[in-house]
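Why do we care about 3D structure at all? Because function follows from shape, and shape follows, mostly, from sequence. That is the central idea of this module. The next example makes it concrete: a single protein chain, its amino acid sequence, and then its structure expressed as tokens.
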Amino acid sequence: MASATDKHTTQTNMDMQMDTYSLFVPKLKDVILKGELAGDIMKEIGSWKDEKKATRARLALTMLQGFNGDMKADSKEAALMGAFLNCATKNIFLDELGPVDSKAWKSFLIVNNESYNATCDHLLVRGDESPFWDDINTPEKETKAQIIARSLADAVAFLESTSGNDPGKWSWGALHTYTWETDTSQMAPHLGFIERMALKSLWSYFNRGPYPAKGDIFTLNVSNYMMGKDFNTWLIPSMRMIVDFSQEEPMLAVNSSGQSDNPSSPHYDDGIKAWRDGKYIPFPFKDAAVKDQYQDVMQFNPSAIRQ
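And the structure:
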């Protein structure tokens, strides 16, 4: 997008900041839909006696084949991609590093989502030489093709259990959400019973969401989630800003929440909708623009206070 033109504008920068195309999707499609591995995956699916499981895996492959990589909130293909990565993470690594409440698994999830991503490395690069492809709970030694085929079927089963049997009604935003939650609310599990109940009763007063989220870890409009755990967004662009020095008032920006820490203020959450919709707010510098935009003025008079 940066090299598409040598004359960038405010609008082209907005388009980049709001872009939700995943560069991982075409790479994954090249690996699992083409070449020798694709044939091995189809052979594995064809060997299954469970026809319902095989139908699910074939549906996943068909949906991925037609997916353009746009992780839109209303996309069923994006939902499948997210579900597949979640299932693949568990199918590749959980048997060696689990159970889910173990320190090893919890540590792996953090590293996998904040640093080296072993899931993507295994899907795109690693072959059968990696010991993690083998399911240690079975007597036979599984291959990469077998685990990917299993994960494709599991992804569809997961979406059926969470979003219904009609793929037309699946959506990425139904799984993947934004929630603006205060630090105090996040601490609730570590507090006493009375404090937890009090915070629960006041949750909607202090917090906002959940809202359908678009994008993922691979998109410019990033919306990272804990792959292998859940789809709750933990990383977003907290602020977007564009400065166009060709304009008299050059600065546009938007905060991801609001300008006030007071939940009763209209400015506590007035940035959320603009942020979600890709809207920007002008930051005026010249006197005329300042007076035009900011009409409510609070004045502090020290002499009056002393009297």
